[in-house]
Amino acid sequence: MLKRLMPKLRNKFLLFIFVLSSVTTFIFMQGKNKVVNLNENDWFITADSGWKGASNGQVVRPGNNFWPVELRYQLIATDLWPWPEIDFWLKFKKGHDLSKYSGIKLVITSQQKDEIYVYFMAEDQNLEILKPLAQKCRLNGKPNQEIFLLFSDFKIPKDWSVRAPGFNSDFKWDKVNRLGIHKKGSDKEKGKILINKIQLFSNPRLKGNRIERARPPRYYTFDLTLKPGNYDNEIVISDSGYNPVGPYFYGANWGVWLDLPDKEKTAFLELKVIRAGGPFMDRYDWRKSKFTFPGNNRKLNMVSPDEFVKYCRDIGAEPLIQVSALGDDAAENAAELLTYLNQEKGYGIKFFEIGNEPFIWHKVHFDLWDHPCSLAEYFEIFVKISLALRNAQDKIDPNFRIKIFAPAIETSWLNWGSFSEKDKQEPVLGRFLKMCKDFEKDKKSNPKGIRLIDVLSFHLFPSFKDNPSLNGEVDSSLILESAQTWWNLDYVNKYDSSLPLGKASGVIPALKDTIKNNYPGIELAVTEFNVESKSMVNFNPLTKVLYLADLYGIMARSGVNYFMQFCLNSSDQNTALLDDIDNITPLYYPLALFARYFNGNILDVKSTNSEKLSIYSCSRQDDIVIMAINKDNFAKKARILLRVKGGSDFSLFFPAMSLTCIRIDKNNPSQKAECWEYGREQIN
Predict the structure, then answer these.
(1) Contacts by 514-521 with C-beta closer than 8 Å and gap 24+?
(2) Could you read off the pLDDT of 69-94 as tens digits, one per residue?
(3) Around Cβ 481, how many Cβ atoms within 10 Å?
(4) Residue 461 and residue 574 in contact, taking contact as beta carbons nearer than 8 Å
(5) What is the DSSP letter of 276?
(6) What is the pTM of this model?
(7) What does the pLDDT read at residue 29?
(8) How does DSSP assign 51-81, residue by residue?
(9) Which of 465, 1, 452 has its CA nearest to residue 188?
(10) Could you say which of 99, 210, 328, 584 would form a disulfide bridge with 588 (CB–CB 3.0 to 4.6 Å)?
């Protein structure tokens, strides 16, 4: 049960280290409270892990005094490194023994609310390279904030561990080489952090400031009674509903540049599919488990296909593997990968996606593809890979059916309103499907009548950052309103700049019509989605939580077959479900509630004032589940009339700006209903 499991969950990318020579000192000053001051002669800066032309910083000290130290930064994105970040380091002359201490205290003055990493570095006993141990802390934007970090809470970041195979998981606190402050952010971001003091402490009873961005939902039970009074909403739920939620509907994208996240926390989400996809998979050598960055020949380690498959299967999820569509040998490589997975290893992998966002290859993979990819070029590549995958699987077992996803197109990069090439008016996805259907019927080119595609896949990241009419939390209602762009054919888009402004999109109905008119019978997948595609866009997390929760209900009701959130784990806490040291983010629990409970036959819902209170309901074998998303700044009192077998009429309050999950036992409707609330009280 969710109420029993959730309490258990309460409880860098590889740093390209530059060995900088300097003489520093480490002065111990033992006091009555067993506090030690850290004083150093100098600080060092590693901007963006050493990428040329990226972020820059400056360390300013007040004359001969050590404290305070002002860390100034200007974050700059480049073509080689679009995720700006910077490191400030205190480098010790030799390894120092911190094993007698329990943690570190920082006194910091910051300009704004922000998150930073605090790092310790020590030499790894196996690899003889510096190994990081990190913890995140939240700055409150106020003077002299005291932050206590326990050594026991520090973890090896996932981007380092995956790129250092064979490292020793132990950390030697008796030989610490340096201390670092790491700041991530967005392009052109400027700021400063004032370090007023850094101290070590050895008080075992002192609690650390663990960064818990979200607490589990509030759980309670209530009587199914209809109380008299005035109501803001009347909701009628009946059996004349929609489709069942697809068996693989709930999914997420693994952050392939990181090690796999905490297995227990991922398992709790009850995801049905995990995608290994994105631009890095277009540059992935699966035989060596390595990939490269654009414009850089350095080969970096990635998790092997075997590790990824085992991880998915251990938590009950099906892997979706994106095969590279770049290179002259792409089809051969794809066939060999499938043969390795399904013949040599016998994994029975059935989901494969061909390429990632091909129409922006010239922007993302500029060193491998130097011009905008046309539909004809992609289709030629796609056909070769699709046939290679089908033929490879037929040689292994013709009765085992794989599903091919394509083209993983990123609509927000293309502008939905001009979604066609200059000489054609028919949208690109419609033309793509028509080409697939025509090829399937072409006896000369395809004598066996091999089916090219099973699932039409696309990506969409609603964007509000660049819209001047939206600025801050006060406009959250406008952002939440714009979720209608996904389903409402009559809704004129005013705020989401990833789609044409001033026009109605009706994304899902339009794509379902595209399938019906050009290639009937195939499925529809959103293999990447979130709010904002750019890194480190600081939204009010509650706005984002409610937008995505509304979206889960919309997509399930609309009959989308696969819906894969980007992403499962990332150093960008604004996007991820788990960050790169496995901290839970505010986006985690809403997906957990939907994936665990909202997975039956969709019921019909009619509601008054539905713009402010979105209601979704499903019927499962033993219960009825209701999801309510209150997008208003005021609580709503609703009368709910259940016109389904095993249902009882009742009334309930929905808190302002909240998600509520209700579970009603069909077999015992007189029993108390279970309820989970998630909103302002749960999000830090």
Answers:
(1) 514/427, 514/429, 514/430, 514/433, 514/456, 515/433, 515/456, 517/430, 518/430, 518/433, 518/434, 518/437, 519/433, 519/434, 519/436, 519/437, 519/453, 519/456
(2) 899 999 988 877 788 889 998 888 77
(3) 19
(4) no
(5) E
(6) 0.91
(7) 27
(8) -TT--EEEEE--TT---SEEEEEE----SS-
(9) 465
(10) 584
